[in-house]
TrEMBL record:
Gene Ontology BP, a term: beta-lactam antibiotic catabolic process
Name of protein: Serine hydrolase
Pfam families associated with the record: Beta-lactamase2
PANTHER family in alphabetical order: BETA-LACTAMASE, BETA-LACTAMASE-TYPE TRANSPEPTIDASE FOLD CONTAINING PROTEIN
One term of GO molecular function: beta-lactamase activity
Metal-binding among keywords: no
Keyword entries, A-Z: Hydrolase, Membrane, Transmembrane, Transmembrane helix
Transmembrane segments: 16-38
Domain Beta-lactamase class A catalytic as annotated: residue spans: 134-342
């Protein structure tokens, strides 16, 4: 009897441990499933109205704005509640608001895209030479920024003419020069190679507007030296670029640039923060009329009529030990405007040009054809 009682107790103890093990297993399994499947806060992107949005209160209303589709419907209801009037649909992408006999335009643009996917697609285009490219992209209407080696120093080539033009126009705004100020082309300003101001022009007088036209439209090398000399030399313009344009590396001498700084200057031109309205419009005019021979980069990836409104500056030439072909500018789109900068080094020119065209087309299709 005692043996039977002992055996019964052992069986009872074994059942207890089995039950305990099963209970622990089920408890752990339940906690694991709760961790895996418990609902989490989704990564919903923050939708932002363009900085020039129509105010919902007050007397002043911006004449035009761009707003993404998702927040637009909420915004539409708020406008009705506050102004007691409806937005009138003009098309699938544009509405209008009439207040006090004044008509205001609201452009409805597609919701934002996945910037990480776009970045990877750009890297795929650059391929095994990615380290030899610097890319900066900024969607001006959606506030999306992408950088690939955008803080690495590259040679700017003729893109270095951009800050010199802006700095000279700032001098015009200050009253130190006018666009019609005449200045003789001298030997100290000669350069080789040059597109327009060859040595036989030494002694000829040109207006500031002529030097600026040669500089940007024709990408003339002597013009950059002439304009630098008028402003006190390249050391002075280097300091001005840092202090007045807010760049860290965007110089002719030393020949340094980072893609992000190029983008910063183009944004300043786009926003009109560097120059007066008149001189800024002149700067855009020059950039939008770059010589036809310099249109086979970013413009190739953009369809008409938007191709002809691109405000850009190219850079090309030889660099030890390779060649360089670059392009950077402002693209005015049908849904959103953006800045694109592609600089490089140690790449053969046909390859660099082709990849810039491919990146340009990818970004256009991503930002405009959603």
């Amino acid at each position: 009897m005692k043996l039977g009682k002992k055996l019964q107790d052992e069986v009872s103890d074994m059942k207890f441990y089995i039950y305990l093990f099963v209970a622990l297993f089920l408890g752990i399994f339940t906690l694991f499933n709760a961790y895996i499947f418990w609902p989490r806060e989704s990564n919903i992107p923050e939708y932002q109205i363009k900085t020039q949005e129509i105010p919902l209160v007050g007397d002043s209303v911006a004449t035009s704005t761009k707003i993404e589709k998702t927040p637009y419907f909420i915004y539409k209801d708020m406008v009705k509640q506050i102004y007691k009037t409806d937005l009138v649909e003009v098309s699938n992408t544009q509405d209008k608001l009439v207040l006090n006999n004044t008509e205001y335009t609201i452009n409805v643009i597609p919701d934002r895209y996945d910037s990480e996917i776009l970045k990877q697609q750009i890297i795929d285009i650059l391929g095994s030479d990615t380290e030899n490219y610097g890319v900066y992209f900024y969607d001006l209407d959606r506030d999306i920024e992408i950088g690939i080696n955008d803080d690495i120093i590259f040679p700017p080539m003729s893109i270095s003419k951009l800050p010199i033009a802006v700095l000279m126009l700032r001098e015009v705004d200050k009253g130190n020069f006018s666009l019609d100020t005449q200045s003789v082309f001298d030997w100290n300003s000669t350069a080789d190679p040059t597109n327009v101001l060859k040595s036989n022009y030494v002694g000829t007088s040109f207006a500031i507007r002529d030097y600026l036209r040669f500089l940007i439209i024709d990408s003339d090398n002597a013009s950059i030296r002439k304009l630098e000399n008028l402003m006190g030399g390249y050391l002075v313009t280097n300091e001005k670029a840092v202090n007045e344009l807010g760049v860290t590396h965007f110089f002719r001498d030393p020949h340094d640039v980072i893609a992000k700084d190029i983008g910063r200057v183009f944004k300043g031109i786009y926003d009109g923060t560097y120059l007066s309205k008149e001189t800024n419009e002149y700067m855009l005019y020059l950039l939008q009329h770059t010589h036809a021979a310099l249109q086979d980069g970013i413009p190739v990836g953009v369809p008409e009529p938007y191709k002809s409104t691109i405000a850009h500056k190219t850079g090309q030439g030889a660099s030890n030990p390779g060649f360089i072909w670059e392009d950077a500018g402002i693209i005015y789109g049908k849904n959103s405007d953006y800045i694109l900068v592609v600089v490089n080094d140690f790449i053969d020119i046909p390859t660099a040009r082709y990849k810039i065209q491919q990146v340009s087309a990818l970004i256009w299709n991503t930002t405009q054809e959603i």
